[in-house]
């Protein structure tokens, strides 16, 4: 009853304070998982030298160097606990750094959160993160004591109850405080409390009911062979539909019978993991992928224990979850990440003229700050070798019929290309191939955009009347982002979004599905990022915050923010690991990188403070607590701000991180100046990049270094994403950016970076105690810099 009372109380209060006009709505999303007290990230050579490992020859195979390093860390005794180097490991040609991703194995089964990311260059280990399980190895699943595996999950539930009670009490006591944007406090509380109370209710209440039902079935409690009871438990927690919950509870046996399992076989050797797919899962839009794994669960004495789980990939209408649910009853949700966050190049047979678009040009954030203009297709020979409207027949999911003889590429005349599939989605469904797209006339996408006031019941009709301009804008902005991020290192090897990878590595068939005027909601946007080789999915909504409605597709900052979720998720922990930015500080930074990059892209040489989402939300100060500013009276955020009421959700956490990055960028601009364009020079026909006034001339193996402060900031942030560990903290991400500068410039900005971070409390003496899976803890600001910077 205690669980139910807490859930009811929180739900009632959250609902009672959210009745303001035109709320900033949020789809339901779960994000939760264990904190690993033993996880480390070392970015200093002095920390790495403390091991017995010595640098290898500069010409040594970097993957062999990584193997030797892992063996050294494990002490050479890992008969039961082993590892594998993941296939998404790669050498970044722009930096020369090899990013090696290692996954722990126990009895041949993956430890899903047992990760090492090792960064190698010239035979040396530059940095590494390690969350490998180091305790006693449990018995094999098939052994008699398999059912005796400990289950500290009840303590998880009790800890969550305690945290919710305390934070709810604090929230109520501060409701009358004078804070900027009072509605934002409610939004952040809804964002935090809503999903967690639902998860909490599911773990506390439904688990007992479901397991009572399951105990009457032929399979015994503790049987790990049937994942259906665990999966149906997760679906009750995940679905936002109360009718689905009621139906599952009332027809438990019928749903289990309908859910059918089948094994997945692999043609190529080397994949020893046993995978399954489950059909007819309530509220899932596609079959659910499942596999057995271990996860590490903290215990009360500060250690961790391995728990056997079913790992599920569940695609729903508005979410795409990766969840770990204990395989042995009682089935409890241990972790959940929502992927929604929010060689020679063939030459086309028939050369085509670049397209043109009537759009708000790159750098014009929204209709309030500029007018539309005719812009040309950005034909970047590196990022988009055959333009934005060509893709191979074999990689085109929309092509039906017989491919023309000897033809390789198909040239499209709609907003459908190798990087982006853009279309309307008024129905709010997952299907997209048959959705409407504008058709170009002589390669020109020039369509009317003239919103007008109307009666409320006509507002949707007015918005739909300019859908051609809307989809064109979304296609243009998304391709510009693709090409920009490509030039800063988000390439095929790094897991970018393309249908065809031009034989340059990485996994194909994952262009961004960009849905304009999505009918599944208002006043929001989201981006789903599954692992490399599966399409990213962006949903852009209308905002009913003004008359006429405001179309989020026309606010570039929102599109950039959403696309940047794909960037940060694919680069952190490797292209095949989408579970590294799910909750807490790491989940918050996933929001912060998007805000920072969107703000940086719109900034000009004449400095200005910027708010996020001002135009779409029809709010001068935007949808965050504060605008991004150098002025502490305008934006007072510090590291310790994360402990304040209202900073429980990932968006609020992200604001603090974005504010820090904004100060870092401004410090670099003060030192190095400002570039009017973030785009590097277009490559020559042979693919080489001219230096111009954008880069320093390269010397030897040194990568190209951007000259100006704003371009350098973007490069360091993106390089830092590649260097940081899975589930990074603020400290880890800070250290990765400082290491990125060391590798790119020789460390010439070492003190500039430290001073900028420490200005808002992230100095060397900053601390956090008692960090919890949902972002809690007690933080202390630190303003100290290294002695060399005094």
TrEMBL record:
Coiled-coil region(s): none
Subcellular location(s) of the protein: Secreted
Chief localization: secreted
Cofactor note: Binds 1 zinc ion per subunit.
Record protein name field: Extracellular metalloproteinase
Domain FTP: 88-132
Binding locations of Zn(2+): 342, 561, 565, 591
Pfam families reported in the protein's UniProt record: FTP (PF07504), Peptidase_M36 (PF02128)
Residues in the signal sequence: 1-19
Enzyme Commission code: 3.4.24.-
Keywords: Hydrolase, Metal-binding, Metalloprotease, Protease, Secreted, Signal, Zinc, Zymogen
Gene Ontology molecular functions: metalloendopeptidase activity; zinc ion binding
Native source species: Gymnopus androsaceus JB14
Cofactor(s) the protein requires to work: Zn(2+)
Claim: Hydrolase is one of the keywords in the record: yes
PANTHER family: EXTRACELLULAR METALLOPROTEINASE MEP (PTHR33478)
GO cellular component terms, semicolon-separated: extracellular space
Residues forming the catalytic site: 562
GO BP, sorted A to Z: proteolysis
Family in the record: Belongs to the peptidase M36 family.
């Amino acid at each position: 009853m205690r669980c139910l009372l807490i859930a009811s109380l929180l739900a009632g209060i959250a609902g009672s304070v959210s009745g303001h006009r035109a709320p900033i709505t949020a789809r339901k999303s779960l994000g939760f998982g264990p904190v690993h007290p033993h996880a480390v990230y070392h970015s200093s050579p002095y920390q790495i030298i403390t091991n017995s490992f010595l640098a290898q020859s500069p010409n040594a195979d970097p993957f062999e160097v990584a193997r030797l390093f892992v063996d050294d860390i494990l002490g050479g005794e890992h008969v039961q606990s082993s590892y594998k180097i993941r296939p998404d490991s790669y050498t970044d040609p722009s930096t020369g750094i090899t990013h090696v991703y290692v996954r722990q194995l126990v009895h041949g089964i993956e430890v899903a959160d047992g990760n090492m990311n090792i960064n190698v260059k010239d035979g040396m280990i530059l940095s590494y993160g390690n969350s490998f399980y180091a305790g006693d190895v449990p018995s094999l699943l098939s052994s008699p004591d398999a059912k005796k595996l400990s289950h500290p999950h009840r303590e998880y539930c009790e800890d969550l109850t305690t945290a919710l009670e305390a934070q709810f009490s604090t929230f109520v006591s501060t409701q009358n405080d004078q804070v900027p944007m009072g509605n934002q406090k409610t939004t952040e509380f809804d964002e935090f409390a809503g999903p967690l109370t639902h998860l909490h209710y599911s773990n506390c209440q439904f688990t007992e009911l479901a397991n009572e039902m399951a105990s009457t079935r032929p399979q015994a409690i503790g049987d790990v062979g049937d994942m259906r009871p665990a999966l149906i438990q997760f679906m009750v927690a995940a679905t936002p539909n109360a009718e689905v919950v009621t139906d599952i509870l009332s027809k438990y046996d019928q749903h289990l019978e309908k859910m059918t399992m089948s094994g997945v076989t692999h043609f190529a050797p080397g994949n020893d993991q046993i995978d399954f797919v489950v059909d007819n899962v309530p509220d899932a839009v596609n079959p659910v992928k499942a596999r057995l794994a271990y996860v590490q669960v903290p215990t009360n004495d500060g250690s961790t224990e391995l728990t056997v789980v079913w790992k599920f990939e569940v695609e729903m209408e508005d979410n795409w979850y990766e969840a770990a649910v204990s395989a042995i009853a009682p089935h409890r949700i241990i972790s959940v990440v929502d992927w929604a966050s929010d060689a020679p190049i063939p030459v086309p047979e028939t050369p085509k003229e670049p397209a043109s678009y009537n759009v708000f040009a790159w750098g014009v954030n929204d209709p309030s700050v500029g007018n539309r203009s005719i812009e040309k297709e950005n034909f970047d020979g590196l990022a988009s070798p055959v333009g934005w409207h060509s893709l191979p027949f074999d990689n085109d999911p929309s092509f039906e019929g017989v491919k023309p003889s000897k033809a390789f590429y198909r040239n499209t005349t709609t907003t459908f290309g190798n990087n982006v599939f853009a279309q309307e989605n008024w129905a709010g469904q997952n299907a997209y191939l048959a959705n409407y797209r504008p058709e170009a006339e002589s390669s020109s996408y020039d369509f009317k955009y003239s919103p007008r006031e109307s009666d409320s019941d006509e507002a949707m009709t007015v918005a739909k009347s300019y859908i051609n301009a809307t989809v064109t804008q979304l296609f243009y902005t998304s391709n510009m982002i693709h090409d920009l991020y490509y030039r800063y290192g988000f390439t095929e090897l790094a897991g970018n979004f393309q249908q065809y990878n031009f034989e340059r590595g990485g996994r194909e068939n994952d262009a961004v599905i960009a849905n304009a005027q999505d009918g599944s909601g208002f006043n929001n946007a989201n981006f789903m990022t599954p692992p490399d080789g599966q399409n990213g999915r962006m949903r852009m909504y209308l905002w009913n915050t003004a008359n006429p409605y405001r179309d989020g597709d026309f606010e570039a900052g929102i599109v950039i923010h959403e696309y940047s979720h794909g960037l940060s998720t694919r680069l952190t922990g490797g292209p095949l690991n989408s579970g590294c930015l799910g909750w807490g500080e790491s989940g918050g930074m996933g929001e912060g990188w998007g805000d920072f990059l969107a703000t940086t892209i719109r900034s000009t040489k004449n400095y200005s403070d910027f708010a996020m989402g001002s135009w779409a939300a029809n709010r001068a100060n935007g949808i965050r607590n504060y605008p991004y500013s150098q002025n502490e009276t305008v934006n007072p955020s510090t590291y310790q701000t994360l402990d304040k009421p209202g900073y429980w959700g990932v968006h609020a956490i992200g604001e603090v991180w974005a504010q820090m990055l904004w100060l870092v960028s401004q410090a670099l601009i003060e030192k190095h100046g400002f570039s009017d364009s973030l785009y590097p020079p277009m490559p020559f026909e042979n693919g080489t990049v001219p230096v111009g006034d954008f880069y320093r001339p390269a010397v030897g193996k040194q990568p190209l270094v951007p000259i100006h402060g704003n371009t350098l900031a973007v490069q360091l942030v993106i390089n830092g994403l590649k260097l940081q560990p899975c589930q990074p903290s603020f400290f880890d991400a800070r250290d990765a950016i400082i290491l990125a500068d060391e590798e790119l410039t020789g460390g010439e900005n070492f003190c500039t970076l430290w001073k900028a971070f420490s200005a808002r409390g992230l100095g060397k003496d900053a601390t956090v105690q008692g960090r919890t899976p949902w972002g809690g803890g007690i933080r202390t600001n630190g303003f100290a810099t290294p002695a060399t910077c005094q």
